[in-house]
Design goal:
Layout (H helix, E strand, L loop, with lengths): L2 H19 L3 H5 L2 E8 L6 E2 L1 H14 E15 L2 E14 L6 E13 L5 E10 L7
C-alpha cells in the first residue's frame, strides 16, 4: 500500500468533510465519481453524481451539519481504497436552534481513475445514536 495514495485519500476525505460542513454542494460533488452511489441511513440509495447533487441541494436547504471523523482507517489495494470512519455530528434543522446529536460509523469506497485521480465511488453510513445523547 502506497503512503502517497493513503495521503491523497485522506485529503479527498477532508475536502468532502469540509464541503459538507460548509453546505457546499459543488464541493461535495467534486469528490464523487460520475456513477457514485450514496447510501444514507433510512433512505433509498442515490445513484450518480447528478442525483447526489440534487439530493444534497435539497438537504442543505433544510439543514446544516457539523461532522467530525473521530477515527479513520484507510486501506488501499491497487486501484481501490476503503476508508472506515467513525463520526460525531451535529445537525441543525431549518427553524431550530438546538442541534440533534449523532454518532455513527461509515465506509467510503474510492476508485482510482485511469488518469490517476481518486474519486468517491460509494459512501454508506449509519447512526449509533438516539439523536438525543452525545
Amino acid at each position: 500500500m502506497s503512503e502517497a495514495d493513503r495521503a491523497v485519500i485522506a485529503r479527498a476525505s477532508a475536502r468532502l468533510l469540509e464541503a459538507v460542513n460548509g453546505s457546499d454542494v459543488a464541493g461535495v460533488v467534486a469528490v464523487w465519481a460520475e456513477d457514485g452511489v450514496m447510501m444514507p441511513p433510512g433512505r433509498p440509495s442515490i445513484r450518480g453524481r447528478r442525483a447526489i447533487e440534487d439530493f444534497l441541494g435539497r438537504l442543505f436547504s433544510e439543514a446544516r451539519f457539523r461532522f467530525e471523523f473521530t477515527t479513520s482507517e484507510i486501506q488501499v489495494v491497487g486501484d481501490l481504497a476503503s476508508e472506515c470512519v467513525t463520526y460525531a455530528a451535529e445537525t441543525w434543522l431549518k427553524g431550530t436552534s438546538q442541534p440533534t446529536l449523532d454518532r455513527g460509523k461509515g465506509i467510503h469506497l474510492f476508485r482510482r481513475l485511469p488518469g490517476g485521480t481518486w474519486v468517491l465511488a460509494a459512501d454508506l453510513w449509519n447512526s449509533e445514536s438516539d439523536g438525543k445523547t452525545p
